[in-house]
Amino acid sequence: MLVANRGEIAVRIIRALHELGVEAVAVYSTADRDALHVRLADQAICIGPPSATESYLRIPNVIAAAETTGCEAVHPGYGFLSENPAFVRACVESGLIFVGPSAEVIEKTGDKARAKAEMRAAGVPLVPGTEGVATLAEVRVAAVELGFPVLLKATAGGGGKGMRVVDRPEDLESAYGAASAEAEAAFGDGSMYLEKALVPARHVEIQVLCDGHGGVLTLGERECSIQRRHQKLIEESPSAALTSEARETMEASVERACRQLGYLNAGTFEFLLGPDGSPSFIEVNCRLQVEHPVTEMVTGIDIVREQLRIAAGERLSVTGRAPRAGHAIEIRINAEDPRRDFAPAPGLVSRFRPPLGPGVRVDTAVFEGASIPPFYDSMIAKVIVRDDTRDAAIARAIRSLEEFEIEGIPTTRDLAIDILRSREFRGGAYSTSYLAEMEGRLPSMVPA
Ligand code: MV4
Fold first, then answer.
1. For burial by CB atoms within 10 Å, which of 53, 104, 221, 415 has the most?
2. Residue 309 contacts residue 324 (beta carbons within 8 Å)
3. pTM over 0.70
4. Catalytic one among 287, 324, 332, 386?
């Protein structure tokens, strides 16, 4: 198996491969020569210089690495080429099994307006809005019907790019132009659609696994509302905002959607919970996600192992709803300075002592003496804890983060401790606005 990624997720995948007795081939840029994923793999192929566009994103180089080493399959991890239909097609043309859905499914769901149309047909609850792509004239009419505030979204968008909240009719034209131009520049597609803006909202997503024999397993939700500028910082499961009825509605609708799409392998369906707690679908992620360990900790299911078994043509051993127990929280540790507007702060990690003890898992590719290169994502570790109740999991998370010694670079560790201790987080009633509202109130976010 070729692992077409780097960092903690490459390490995570190599571990799953080795447990199944499968040889792992790593790829790396010249900036990652001494990286942990290179050391843990059975073979490693250099695919280019540090810039991701010339290495981890360069399809011919990744395919050549798989071919020259005799790989049978490719796991893309998250980011990089993981949701790129051209990469999936290149794999298939080279006789490589891609660990993920088909190029057709990735294309269908990558167009957010098209994805919504598919979900509507499957009876998934949607945020009210235009049916598909809308011109400025159509948006003007729809906005009046929906009522302000509305949200302009790029059909090719994601991560908030090409998205604009509009509060007043007179701002529609300039917002449409700006968002469409931003989407055109970022994705080569300026198509827009409109939705009613749900504010304040909670971001809750459902994890699913689908095999090639019609088996569908839903693995419950992850609450991902603690984020800053679309970068998630803390995720947990279960969500304090979901009743068991709302959860079952979401899981049943995701199961129908997967059957309708012909979904294969791991996927995540993102929903917003409105002020009344009712879920509305927003988009599909056709990949393994950063926060997948939260779900692994409450279900006991190894999602990456299941991905590999599905790619090998095996059946899911359980279908329907995965069993769950307890409460899990993931904290992302980034090499960023929260006192300097979260500026990335790569460099030498002079001390690195991750937490241990009951109910604690740390996913990382960092070790003492490692250098964090400036070319990639700033996430350096994930601390995931599980305990019987939410309060116990919070206490375990704080204990773990206090135990975590990282020196040489600034990190988001202390900010995470502040968040976990805050009355708002402990109460469980937070929304996606939480961090913006806490700006200046959390000690570790105050400029030095
Ligand atoms: C929304 C929304 C409110 N109303 N859609 C952000 C990125 C993309 N995944 C969709 N996003 C949102 N869509 C409607 N109709 C609020 C957000 C949003 C958000 C969603 C999830 C997690 C964090 C967020 C932060 C700001 C806005």
1. 221
2. no
3. yes
4. 287
